């Protein structure tokens, strides 16, 4: 069984790992390769701040809520392991701020210790009148991708720097199953009018006194368009940019000013923080994640493609639940082809 | 008497903050801080500086709560200002956990810190040896930054700093009109006070920047306090122990206890050992004393004995000490042949 995963962001690498973990021992042979044009630190995952937090409104596909929760619980189970920090994983608490009373989010019982902010806490943020406090998790993109790469390399998974022009090309190369984790660039392999870039720009600063995340919300402007401050393991990410349809990969000075002014107004202590880096990334925005299989007829053989892209600004938040779902679909394919030596221990 | 000349003995958090409060409260005074030790060599520099107050058995609870609240409010304002980094003050959230249900589930300071509540069942799962916990957000005030910040404030209002070891408070007479004794453990000698004794604390300062929460065992013996540039792991409470040298066995024990609470600390590096002697007393001594020797008179305000609550209580007690000094200054200025202080 030859599997090719296209894409080496969090979705590609975690899906590759999930499949290998579950099927390596139940298949006669399992060969997994990752093809990608960009590897860490050049992926969109590397730009993400890495806070586990879904969008506030319920997803149009209720499965996504389940996948988010599965991811949180999976990550939480690694807290308490000495290696958590190597994964880029750590608990982090913080504030979500609003201009008016809003209903509780559907994930309030997934995170830990969810509660409303007290009046004295709100005094810290004079522009806001309502908010939440909860404990969540940070999963730093870069560190996590490095960790996933190590785990995959240990398992003999090969990585190839390759620009894939078509699924057919990969199928002709001998792949039985292709996992399409090409994120915001999926349209190049198969046109998808539902997929758009949600351009984001972030500034990373040195501000080690910031131990909490602070995320503001402005319903008039929309998600990610309001300032946010998210501490990572070493640096603190400042953001607040979301531009649908903008493919510009260079940092923009106006966006820089928007972020800087918004975050310093929110948190005056940042005024003298040293800037470490600044980058741009593209959230793969889609009304819902595309997670489904598609049969490809190449010559006389059938190649299966499993699509797993379009995770918007919540890729890290949802990644493991999606990887499990892809693994389930993969398992079905194996069953259909009578390839399973023994029933899989758990799916 | 024009300018009242005031000497503050001791340059830890208590001495410096008292001097700053005095310079703001007492009109027409000059204030000089005199000490043989300054930051970063004071006990205040070793302390993690978490605002989680101890209990002083000899002090009424309402007074402790007042001191803690005044300190919290003072530092909270700094934490939310552009000075926060310079002053070494930051907000930290976390958990205080107990192996058995404590007699007091809600301590007197619960409504002074932010967002105080009981931990949920899910939160307690992270600590399988513990059955009860409190979650809250409090402040951390770091000596190595805060003390220089106080010194700057003091000098800005005309205060002076003098390096000298004072062996006897009478040395300060007649150069100074009032002495504020903030000498901590030094008061055993300077004030002849047998009630003050050291409680030795050994800590480790380590690099573990992924730790964003404090974790404190309710016994107070084991704690993890993330700061601006390091994480403090502790600790010990050794009564009557004056030894300032770190003990390697104790360090191993601290690391092991902390790793049990937070396994990711196995990856901590750049481990530095520090020792501080908490100036412990059944209650903070905050009172006036008129020293007399022959015809010489020296008004003294004692302000020492904060034990493990130096940073947590400093501003509230400093305000009170400044009020006492102000009363002394007033008495000195009031012309009366036989004035009683």
Automatic annotation (TrEMBL), chain A:
Its main location: cytoplasm. Pfam families: DAO. GO terms for molecular function: D-amino-acid dehydrogenase activity; D-amino-acid oxidase activity; FAD binding; identical protein binding. PROSITE patterns: DAO (PS00677). D-dopa binds at residues 53, 217. Gene3D superfamilies: D-Amino Acid Oxidase, subunit A, domain 2, NAD(P)-binding Rossmann-like Domain. GO terms for biological process: D-alanine catabolic process; D-serine catabolic process; digestion; dopamine biosynthetic process; L-leucine metabolic process; L-proline catabolic process; neutrophil-mediated killing of gram-negative bacterium. The keyword rRNA processing does not apply. One of its GO terms (cellular component) is peroxisomal matrix. Residues 2-328 form the FAD dependent oxidoreductase domain. FAD binds at residues 49-51, 164, 182, 312-317. Keywords: Cell projection, Cytoplasm, FAD, Flavoprotein, Oxidoreductase, Peroxisome, Phosphoprotein, S-nitrosylation, Secreted, Synapse. It is found in: Cytoplasm, Cytosol; Peroxisome matrix; Presynaptic active zone; Secreted. It catalyses: D-leucine + O2 + H2O = 4-methyl-2-oxopentanoate + H2O2 + NH4(+); D-dopa + O2 + H2O = 3-(3,4-dihydroxyphenyl)pyruvate + H2O2 + NH4(+); D-valine + O2 + H2O = 3-methyl-2-oxobutanoate + H2O2 + NH4(+); D-alanine + O2 + H2O = pyruvate + H2O2 + NH4(+). Its EC number is 1.4.3.3. PANTHER family: D-AMINO ACID OXIDASE, D-AMINO-ACID OXIDASE. Belongs to the DAMOX/DASOX family. This is D-amino-acid oxidase. It comes from Balaenoptera musculus.
Automatic annotation (TrEMBL), chain B:
It catalyses: D-aspartate + O2 + H2O = oxaloacetate + H2O2 + NH4(+); D-glutamate + O2 + H2O = 2-oxoglutarate + H2O2 + NH4(+). Keywords: Cytoplasm, FAD, Flavoprotein, Oxidoreductase, Peroxisome. It is found in: Cytoplasm, Cytosol; Peroxisome matrix. It comes from the Eukaryota. One of its GO terms (biological process) is L-aspartate catabolic process. FAD binds at residues 43-44, 166. Residues 6-324 form the FAD dependent oxidoreductase domain. One of its GO terms (molecular function) is FAD binding. One of its GO terms (cellular component) is cytosol. Its EC number is 1.4.3.1. Its cofactor is FAD. The keyword Ubl conjugation does not apply. D-dopa binds at residues 223, 278. Transmembrane segments: none annotated. Its main location: cytoplasm. Belongs to the DAMOX/DASOX family. PANTHER family: D-AMINO ACID OXIDASE, D-ASPARTATE OXIDASE. Selectively catalyzes the oxidative deamination of acidic amino acids. Suppresses the level of D-aspartate in the brain, an amino acid that can act as an agonist for glutamate receptors. Protects the organism from the toxicity of D-amino acids. May also function in the intestine. This is D-aspartate oxidase. It comes from Balaenoptera acutorostrata (Common minke whale).
